[in-house]
Amino acid sequence: MIKRFLELIIILIGVSILSFSFSNISSIDPAEAFTRRSIVNPSEEQINEIRHKMGYDKPMYMQYMHWFKKCLKGNFGTSLVTQNPVLKDITDKLIATLTIVGMAFIWIVLFTVLLSVLTAVKKDSIADHIIRVITILGISLPSFWLGFLLLTLFAITFPIFKVVDYGGIRSIILPSITLAVPIISSCVRVLRATILSNLSKDYVLYATARGIPMKKIITRHVLKNALPPTVTLFFQNIGFMIGGSAIVESVFSWPGLGNYFVNAILGRDLPAINGCVLIIAMIFVICNLIAEVINIILNPHMKNSRKVENYG
Fold it and tell me: Which of 233, 251, 282, 285 could link 147 by a cystine bridge, Cβ 3.0 to 4.6 Å?
């Protein structure tokens, strides 16, 4: 676990270097963008003075080391657009994003397990074929199109929800469904396949011969063995939902981290861009670590397999 933790730290440092490098090689000068937002028709001297004050006239490696040292102390700098500490902005926006991600999490767990078990037990039935078509559509549909479709249907044609809403329980239903549908669709396909694979194994045949009801075999044994690939896929998608929620948040005018990240890019807000990339990368690696821990808890032999791989 210590080795895995050190690997994650190395990944985060690599991500921060790449993010900082790509942000700085852009042709748009953040000091000039900030000056033109603050001063009408600024002179070249004023732009140079602000560039020097912000430290953007120093070599890139010196800028990175200065930024990285501040990050280690929890200081991600000050946003050039909002003038707030970047960490405060990200924390506020992340709470809004986690609200819809949390609701999407409930939809995903509930529908993935139910639909996967149903389609595996009722293999090649009408229900299986219908769910297969729906899940393929769910995987194929772009999130922005699904979001617009849900808004048109349930906020305009049938005004059950508001077009622009934030704060109430009803306001998170449509965005969370939009986030959850593609992930439910992909997880159902994976979990169904692994359940079917486990149903054909000897331990299921042995349990059936002992007279154990199929419902009990599935809930106590088959699901436990079939879940690891789905858990890995699920937690990878949790990171994707948080980091890639910008499109859904834009459709529903949701003030989350994705919207903040997009606005930071458009406003050439370098501290906010670097802070967002680092936080999103941290979320990805933490989600992957959680998936690995849960898989080991579900199947302890995976820990031994990892040791064998390392020694091999």
Answer: 251
